[in-house]
Amino acid sequence: MEKKSLKDQFKELKNGSHVISIYKKEGDCIKIDSDFIIASIENNERCVYIEGNISIEKIKKYLKKKNIDITSKIYRKQIVFLNKDQIYNNDLESNKIIKIIKNEAKNAVEDGYKTLNVIGEISWLNDMNFNQEKIINYEKKIDRELFDEYSIKTLCKYQFDLYEERLLKTVIELHPYLVWQNTLYENPYYISIDSFKNYHNIQIKKVHEWLDNIEYYKKEQDKYKFELAEEKDKFEFLFNQVDDALFVHGVTDNGFTNFEMVNEQAVKQLGYTEKELLEMQPKDIDSSKNDDAFYKDKYEKLIRNNHVKFVTEHVTKNGHTYPVENKSHLFVYKGKKLILTIARDITDRVKKEKELKKDIIKLY
Predict the structure, then answer these.
(1) Taking the chain, what is the end-to-end CA distance rounded to the nearest angstrom?
(2) Alpha-carbon span 174 to 335, nearest angstrom
(3) What is the DSSP string of 162-180?
């Protein structure tokens, strides 16, 4: 199963998603922000980018490299860039900020966009010695006043090296989704906003919610493993229903690697066990009937065209040879180049062709 890109993960977020992004490098932050913006564009949603440590010009430059028509998107107000002074004005006035975001959400719907996406960062406020309680209350206010009433998704950014560990831990707990190392996760350490209302009971509530989260993720993991096992069983069943021998193996600049998968027909035709075949390479079951130039030509065609068809001979465990028609296909799975070869036993076909030639010769 291929891993989804961060952009595609963002596209699947539901309204009311409150995401935190913890980043270390500027380049990582630019990519994450841009993926969030592009996801909103592809979902026909509006995105408001509030400038933080990353300048608006750097985001625009990156989006242009991704073939986003910035001028058009700004004109249609699908992307709205706001300078941090327009929002924060060197202070973290939560009421003012919430009011601006609410107005943007209303305007987005009136302009035909189904959802407002907001990207914001307050890392720069750390230079002004803002206390942690003010930042935490700001995040809690966003969660409490925006998501129930408005069609909004937010991406809150924090630069890893700028905050004390205690504050980072707390703001992570306030967000149900977390972006870390270019991947979006459901946050197992998320603590609901209600738990933060009663300071005296917060520690015990944290423990209860963490235990609930562990139980939930265990159930989801078991469900995923079950579905994965079902898909694997289904694939293996189909793989073994084919009448032709099937072989999957890797490829390098110098040739082929050991078989990684073989089907039951391959085991039956060649007389080896599956375990024995998985310790062998294509050359180990080929009779070498053809010269080196022949095999080199087929290898180069396969690499160049991603497929090749040719006739050769296979050798069974007891030394018997028989003709096969190989159809090999090159593909990439999880970043690895693999070859699938379908080897059809053409003994009967070759025999009939020989008989037909004899009959033709007799006619003359």
Answers:
(1) 60
(2) 35
(3) GS-HHHHHHHHHT-SEEEE
- Tokens (6 digits) for 360: 């033709």
Helices (runs of H) and strands (runs of E) counted in the chain = 13, 12
**What whole-number distance in Å separates Cα of residue 293 and Cα of residue 297?**
6
Token pair listed for 125: 């406020």
B/e letters for 50-61, b = 16+ CB within 10 Å, e = fewer, are bbbbbeeebbbe
pTM: 0.57
Backbone angles phi, psi at 181, to 5 degrees: 55, 50
Return the sign of the alpha-carbon dihedral for residues 122, 128, 132, 133.
Answer: negative
The CB-based long-range contact list for 82-85 (8 Å cut-off, 24+ gap) reads 82/48, 82/49, 82/50, 82/51, 83/51, 83/56, 84/50, 84/51, 84/52, 84/124
- Tell me the pLDDT of the chain (364 aa) as tens digits: 457 899 999 999 999 898 999 998 999 999 999 999 999 999 999 999 998 888 999 999 999 999 999 999 999 999 999 987 777 766 667 788 888 889 999 999 999 998 999 998 876 555 445 556 677 777 777 777 888 788 999 999 988 888 777 778 878 888 889 998 889 998 878 877 665 555 445 555 555 565 666 666 666 666 656 666 777 777 677 777 888 999 999 998 888 999 999 999 999 999 999 999 999 999 999 998 888 888 889 999 999 999 999 999 999 999 999 999 999 999 988 788 999 999 999 999 888 888 787 777 776 6
Q: How many CB atoms lie within 10 A of CB 89?
A: 11
Single-letter amino acid, residue 345: D
